[in-house]
Structure formats: C-alpha cells, structure tokens
Design brief:
Length: 175
C-alpha cells in the first residue's frame, strides 16, 4: 500500500460476537489476506487497519478486535466509543453463538452510538456439512433488527471483503 496516500476518513469498526466464532481470523483475512490455523485466543485490545477506496475517497478502516473478553458484558464501553460500524459475528455451525446475537445487539444499543451500522456475519460458511443455523433464520433476524447480513469464510476468504466493503460503504453513505 502507498504510505503517501492521502486518507480522507478514518472509520472505527468493532468486531464482536462469542468466543471462537472467527473474529480474529476474519480481521486477519480482511487486513492481511491471511488465515492462521494455530492462532492463540486474542490477548489485549488490538486493532488492524486497511485503507480502501470508496467513491474516490480513501477510507482507512481501523478495525478493533476484542481482548478475549467475549463473555456477556465483559467488553467495556471504551471499546465501542467512536465506532461507526460493527461486525457482529456468529459461527454457522454453533447454534449457541447465533442465539447470543440478540445479546450482542443489546450491548451495541446500550454502549455504541445510535447511528452505528451493524453487519451480522455468519462465519465458517465453508463447514456446510456442520451447519446449525439456517441462512433464513439469520436473514429474518437481521431484517427484524435492521442489520445487514452476510455469510463468510475467513478460511477460504469467501465474502469477507464483500461484507467489509458493504459495511464501509454504508458508513460512508450515512456520514
Ligand atoms: P475468535 O475467538 O472469535 O477471535 O475466533 P478465532 O478467529 O480465534 O477462530 C476460532 C477458531 O475457528 C480457530 O481455530 C480458527 O482457525 C477457526 N476458524 C475461524 N474462521 C474460520 C472459518 O471461516 N472456517 C473454519 N473452518 N474455521 C475457522
Ligand atoms: Mg479472537
């Protein structure tokens, strides 16, 4: 990437969802095009960045990963502060991770800005034989709650860029 490039906007995006759904790998796929098979669980709050061009504007996405604090209510409000977008991730093979999505939406409504754009992400879409969450269930929930929705695979890379670009475009659109 060109270091000299002029940045028009910095968008803070938070990645949330239950532990082990693939948040860190989705982030690594989007920012480095990498997938790490033996990644340790995340320690400490960290963010990664990637600059993208949307409608001639250079947007630096500053994407925050949780500190392995994915237990309900363990993520602090500082994490959400200033966030314009959220990737709310569940694992399509783990029903419980989808059942908890409503709690994560509550957390966002409580701590994040009202205008935050939320993308619901069903990850591990490569594990179709183990699917436990029908696409229609997630779509229905997303429509009810006014969320965008995508199924991704951090492993294959399927839909990861598309989901992030959609989120960033929507944020840009609501600026
Ligand atoms: P986090 O706790 O939500 O950050 O989850 P991680 O990113 O650490 O991933 C948890 C586990 O799921 C790791 O063993 C990853 O290798 C695996 N994983 C993450 N994304 C995918 C995916 O898209 N497909 C498959 N098959 N495994 C994945
Ligand atoms: Mg992690």
């Amino acid at each position: 990437e060109n270091q000299q490039e002029k940045i028009d906007y910095v968008f803070k995006v938070v990645v949330i969802g239950d532990s082990a759904v693939g948040k860190t790998q989705i982030l690594s796929r989007f920012t480095k095009n990498e997938f790490c098979f033996d990644s340790k669980s995340t320690i400490g709050v960290e963010f990664q960045t990637r600059s993208v061009t949307i409608k001639t504007k250079v947007i630096k996405a500053q994407i925050w990963d949780t500190a392995g604090q994915e237990r309900y209510r363990a993520v602090t409000s500082a994490y959400y502060r200033g966030a314009l977008g959220a990737m709310l991730v569940y694992d399509i093979t783990k029903r419980q991770s989808f059942d908890h999505v409503a709690r994560w939406v509550e957390e966002l409504r409580a701590h994040a800005d009202n205008s935050i754009v939320i993308m619901l992400v069903g990850n591990k879409a490569d594990l179709l034989d183990h699917r436990a969450v029908p696409t229609e269930d997630a779509l229905e929930f997303a429509e009810d709650q006014g969320l965008f929705f995508a199924e991704t695979s951090a492993l294959s890379g399927d839909n990861v860029d598309k989901a992030f670009f959609k989120l960033l475009e929507e944020i840009y659109g609501v600026l």
